[in-house]
Amino acid sequence: MKALVKPGFQTRPNRLAAGRDGWEAAVALVERWLATRERVDSLLEQLAPVLPAQDRARAQHLFFGVVRWAGTLEAALTGLMAHPPRTKVRAVLLVAGFEMLETIGADPIAGDVAAAKIVHHAVEKAKTVASAKEAGLINAVARKLAARLAERRAAKTSDQSATALADAWGHPLWLVQRWHAQFGAEAVAKFLEWNQTPAPVYARWRAAGLPVPEFLAPTKWPEFFEVRGGQWDEVRRLANEGALYLQDPSTRLCLDLLAPQPNETILDACAAPGGKSLFIADRMQSGRIVALDEEGPRLQRLRENLGRAPKSVEVALMPGDLALATPAYFKKFNLPDSFDAVLLDAPCSNTGVMRHRIDVKWRLQEGDIAKHAAQQFTLLRAATRLVRDGGRLVYSTCSVDAAENEEVVRRLMREVRGWRLERQVLAYPWTDGHDGTGAFLLRKT
């Protein structure tokens, strides 16, 4: 059962034609996303590795920009074409449209000049990636698109209604209405702007006693550093060696509540991909961790991360569904049937991490948050069976929604006896400066 796995990055077969440069690669990525709505991280993994680093970075920037602003760009395109074009042509227009959004500023003349250059570039590229006839269509539509996008930016006012904010910041209206009711207009405006801003990359430094590289910039959060660009090969090497782990500072909040102690036996109940299991091991330095999660693609990453744990910590990987994992199930694997502490970092809507998971807002449906809350309660109730008397249970999500945080915990307090809520932490991007999360420390009495 012990996870004795050599660390290393896994590769996937490349199925995505990348194009000859970063711009063409971005068009290919957008085209595939429009056609399949695959997850953006999955699509990036399929990008051909032969592209130079600079082109890969440009492709990712343009692709992410289109996905972030898809609502705004699609709304601006509405009515500009008599018939729907090929998906590739729409991809070209969306990439060019995002470039225009980036260049629109306070100076209208400078914006017009920049937009003309973007249109010309898109038309010339279209002759290669599409056809000469379609390049003519792109020329006509892109010029009108530039004017519409400029008008939309100029029309921004002090209106902070849910409809105006959803339109201005490219989010689904139902989601903005939900947040508007919970947090108020001012907070929502800051949140939407946050979501539309490219996210920094953070790393937790694990190599105690070794000097921190200069490309890791200190932050206000102990152990966490911001990764400066241009050193990705070195970052990859250090991650493989276990010296650092790419992780958002928000993850520290549930670990602080869990407060792992040396020689404890701790269960990470929804452990994949394993970043928090590794964090627990680093905090404990001695003891035992059992990492539970369902069979699936992320289980391999969990194995790899457990393989990077300190040698003084015993780690075990246990495939299984927490909802079905009774104490007897653990006994069958010669593992403890109760634990000093359990961490349940539950599957959720990801509304607190939309800056990173940029396509989440387009995948979520109105009923999904209630479905998540129901599943979270089922998992939380199951986790209570696995905590020893006097032990502790930390429930956490990467959601900002009360339905997945406070309301799930309140329901547990009503329906399951023998527990008390000792402490809770709610973090919001617009106030805390990192991903949103909810974390709750429960004690078995």
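^ that was protein a. below is b, sequence first then the tokens
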Amino acid sequence: MKIIDFKNLIKAMPVDFQSFDINCKSWENTAQNQIIDKIVKATTDNVLTLSRSDLFITDCNLNEFVIKVLMWGYPTKGRGINIETFMQPENFLPFIEKLNEAEKKKNITISEVYELLNAKGLGFSTLSKILYFKKITIESKYTLILDRRVINALASGRFADQDIEIFKNLKYENAIKHYVKYLKFMETLASRMNTKADNIEMFLFIFGKNLFKYKR
């Protein structure tokens, strides 16, 4: 079984419409609460819906943008204290300064990605979302989300696409080391299917570990 076998489904993936309902109560009484209050003030029933399209077209400042990405990625604020730790001013504000510099450059190196990842409480999955929605390229490669579900799909051994074996040792803990290879692989695969790489990413997120080779 190959990812490319699902080409027609992948090309039809509604990437821009992928949305999550955010439980606003989960985000109450937290760091950066003034920004959060501004984001959620127009909601009803304490639910805010954000789509990929919303994050791509947002014209808010970087502080608000990053928090919206966090809310989209972690509608109930996630487990543990990582997000709360990251949003503490001593961690959040230096990160925003570095992200601002990266946005000005538009294209950064993997070494600069490591620098961004130094922010306490920030994981690579979250950082990949921020870079993706800001359309900041890495070594001239279009950025994509790389979270645990995509990682598990690529490393699962379920798919036999050309060159996918380079991800057999891919884990969340070493994801940043494989990130440029991931971007190149997805770009090449998207070209073969005449689609966009984020369509493949969304396919892997939704179906990557739920498909098995059909046997009669």
